[in-house]
Each structure stands twice: as structure tokens, then as C-alpha cells.
Amino acid sequence: MMPEAHFAFSLIIWNLLHRIGIASDYLSLFIVLGIGVGIDIDVIFVKPHRISFLHYPLTWIIVGLIFSFLSVEYTYMIIASSLGHFILDSIDWSVYWLAPFSMRNFGLKIQEKNSKLDPHSDKLVDFIKEYYKDMRMILIEMTLLIMVLMICII
Fold first, then answer.
1. How far apart are CA 138 and CA 130, in angstroms?
2. pTM, two decimal places
3. Could you check whether the bond before residue 57 is cis, i.e. omega within 30 degrees of 0?
4. First-to-last CA distance in the chain?
């Protein structure tokens, strides 16, 4: 998914955490948004970026457990925002949910099934162009953005 979808879904996650009393301040909002969107920073360094350790759910479970020594709320925020990111990534392409133990990928692969692009060799800009030509992906992103607006109003 594109950054705006991760941003919107992270806001939804933060709102849910806020409503149950876990996330209550701007720092918590920054943590949830930073992780939910920031995981994709590996797109700059690794090709294909979803094989990076930043895209391993286990990485974020460990990070969350480490931060539990500061506050268990951090653990919930870190794990929830990272898992939200991976859930979205499992819609368009796939995620290595069991990495590093298994490099088998799982996901709906809505975008991947019809793509002629190769994550190992094609440019990021080619993926972005292809992504925004797919009405299904645009519909998913629009739905997330509308959900965020509705949640923010309520």
C-alpha cells in the first residue's frame, strides 16, 4: 500500500488505542504514525523492500517487548501499528509473516497477481504508476481515508 493508506490506517489504530485508554497523547500518536508509515523507509535501501528486516513482524514484536520495560502501552502501540502496516501490505502484494524462519510470503496479492513488474529489478516509480492505475487499490485507499474522516468527526 501507499503511504497515505498506511497513514490513514495508523490513525484508525491510534484512535482505537486511544478509545481503550492506551494511547492518550501526541507522543503516542507520533509513535503509531511513525511506525505505521515509517516501516517503508526500507524502500530507499533494500530491493525488494519487503524482504528487509523492517518488514518482518517478529522484528516489531521484539521491539515492542523491549519497550515494555518503559511502558506496556508502548508495546501495544508498537505491535498494533506494525501489524496494521503488515495487514495492509498483505492486501496488495504479500508479507513474509514468518520471517526470518520462513521466506514464504502470504497475502491476497491483489496487485501482484496482475503485475508484470519485478520487485527485484523494476523501479519504485513504475510500481507507483501501476498502483494508481488499479481502481481496486484506489477504492481501498479511498475507503480508508473516508473511515478516518468519519472516526475523526465522531
1. 11
2. 0.92
3. no
4. 26
